[in-house]
Every structure is written in C-alpha cells, then in structure tokens.
Amino acid sequence: MSYATNPADGTRIAFSSLPARSGDENAPALMLVHGSALSSAVWRGLGYVAALREHYRLLLPDLRGHGRSDTPHDEDAYAMESIVGDLVAVLDAVGVRQVHYLGYSFGARAGLALAVTAPQRLHSLISLGGSASPQRGAMDSLFFPGCVEVLAQKGMDSFLAEWSNHREVPVDPVTAAAFRANDTEALVAYFRRSDREPGIDDATLGEVEVPTMAVAGSEDHLRVDDTRFLSRTIPGARLAILRGRDHAGTVAAAPEVLSVIGPFLAAHAGP
C-alpha cells in the first residue's frame, strides 16, 4: 500500500499500484474506484483485479474516509472538489498522465466530476451505477430511510442489519466486511456532505469529450434512469443494462460487468 497527498488540504490517500501480469511495462493504466462505505478491497474480493490485471496496470485508491486513507470527520472535507483532487494526486504520485477509469456508485460520480474538471487525465470512463444528479435523499434511497441517523446513533452492525431487512437478499459478506472496516464517524460526515452534493448540470455533461460507457442494473431503481440519461447526454456514450441486478448486485456481478466493459476498454486502449 502506498500513499498520495492531496496538496489542497494534506489528506493522505492510500492506494495500490499493480503491474499487469503480462509483464508489459507499457500496459495501459486502469483506475478502479469503489463506492460508498466500501474500499479498494472490494475489487479483489469480487474478482475484478484477477480478470483485469491480465492486460492492465491497475490503480486501486481508497477514497478519503474509506479503507486505509485519512478519515476526516468534517463534512465539508468530502466536497467533490476534494475527491477529484485526491484522484489526481494518486495519478501524479505514480506518474500516470492519463488513465482508463472504472468507478462504481460514489466512484462513478467522482469519475464524472474528473471528466468535467480534468478531462486530460482520462483515456476513457466507465460509470457503474453512477449519477450526475443532485444527491439529496440519495443515501436513504440507496440504503433505507433514516440510514445516516441509524449509522450515527447505533453503529455499523445495526446499519447493515437494517439494510438487509430492506433488500430482497441479505448484504453479501464481501460488502459487509468492507462496510465494517470503515471509521463510522467519517462515514457519517461523508454521507451528510453527499446529501448536499449539487451534481453536474446537463449543459456541462453535454460538453464531456471523454469516451464514456454507462452501466446499471435494471432493478437499480435509483440509478438506472440516471444511467440512461448519462448515455443520452454525454456525446457518443454507450449504455449497458444488466438485467435483474439492483444497485449492490450490479458491482457484485463481476462476470456480467466484465463482459460488457471489456470490448469498450479494448476499443479505447491507449498507452
């Protein structure tokens, strides 16, 4: 595990840099960015690292407030501007000028923001269960009503139990383990700041020039419409809908995700 420092506020971001198994020192770099309350470990646990490392150099950051990165307890530390600064700091730390990008949920939102503010750092962008819309009420919709207060007052075990009660199937063990590894107070601060996130306006999305693919599950009722909107609004964006998958089930369906993003990545492979 290595660390990059965001020069704007000194927050340290933990990340792993894994060379391609092919041994090709010029293999294209691919950054995998996890969702809310997860960490970079989820990409290993669900099989993405094993599959993608065959042909790509992988960069796996823990977003601030998650995993082994710094965990500020100030809500405003989680403004999207700071998140984007963290991602750029990781790229600078490893000397990667441009990267392919796969982001899930929170990671997808960060990728969209990166495509707007620093498009020169991206070869391509894949949004998995992402959204550019304002985020007010999104956490309650993603998890369950009142989820932030349950987390703040009763802790992570109660949060996971209540979330499972609101799902058709229980939270999978990989996801549950990643959630439990978080600093609860930092996660509450992130959730509350996320609720104030204004998103990206339609006109700005319409000017994105980064090759983009938008992916969501057909049963991801919060994000599937947003995903379709992204595919219509970002010029040339491609769309893939995974049948029968909800928000959490989408990232867990690694073979399905890899089958649809593989050709897209190959088509846009760069140095």
What does this structure look like?
With 271 residues, the chain is an alpha/beta fold. The chain has one domain: Rossmann fold, CATH 3.40.50.1820. It has 13 helices and 8 strands. It has an 8-stranded mixed beta sheet, sandwiched between helices. The longest helix is centred in the N-terminal third of the chain and has 15 residues. It starts with a strand and ends with a helix.
Fold topology:
Elements: E1 2-5, E2 12-18, E3 29-33, H1 41-45, H2 48-52, E4 57-61, H3 80-94, E5 99-104, H4 106-117, E6 122-128, H5 138-142, H6 147-154, H7 156-165, H8 173-180, H9 184-194, H10 202-205, E7 212-217, H11 224-233, E8 238-242, H12 247-252, H13 254-267
Parallel strand pairs: 3-4, 3-5, 5-6, 6-7, 7-8
Antiparallel strand pairs: 1-2, 2-4
Helix pairs in contact: 3-4, 6-7, 6-9
What is the compact description of this entry?
This protein is an alpha/beta fold and about 270 residues long. Helices cover about 40% and strands about 15% of the residues.
Q: Tell me, what is the CATH class?
A: Alpha Beta
Helix content: 40-55%
Kindly state the mean pLDDT as a whole number? 94
Q: Identify the strand order in the major beta sheet.
A: 1-2-4-3-5-6-7-8
Order of helices and strands: EEEHHEHEHEHHHHHHEHEHH
CATH overall fold name = Rossmann fold
Q: Estimate the global geometry from the Cα principal axes.
A: globular
Q: In the CATH hierarchy, what is the architecture at level 2? A: 3-Layer(aba) Sandwich
Number of domains: 1
Radius of gyration: 17 Å
CATH homology superfamily name: Alpha/Beta hydrolase fold, catalytic domain
Low-confidence stretches: none
User: Major β-sheet, in short?
Assistant: 8 strands, mixed
Termini separation comes to 24 Å
Beta-strand level of the residues, as a percent range? 15-25%
Structural class designation: alpha/beta
Total count of helical runs of at least 4 residues: 13
Number of strands: 8
